[in-house]
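Quick one, T. Sequence first:
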Amino acid sequence: MRRALALASAGLLLAGCGSQAAQQETPKPPRLPRALASSWARQANAVATALAAGDGCTALDHANALRSGVDGAAGDIPRRLRAMLQPMVDALPGRITCNPPPPSPQPHPPKDHHDHGKHKGHGGDEG
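Structure tokens:
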């Protein structure tokens, strides 16, 4: 899961940051607008962070937001990139199980230093 997410993130970043090297023999690779690539990389990182924290519900929310963002920008994504990106982004929410984060440790209640009869029945006149 993390590997697929990392590959998708890397693909987004690389697509948004094409090099300006002279490539006269091969056509330029399709480019993703930098703002979209940056936004989607942040969202993919948010999914990964939530998964690493064991918070599947938050990860699922971020994955759905990422999918919505990609769907909404479909016209701005070059066809070749969209053909690779769309199936990965569409499948991501289905691979995440919504489970709440693990509970944080509860602080222990303060110790009561009052006697409360702990020594009752120990010696003395009680019988």
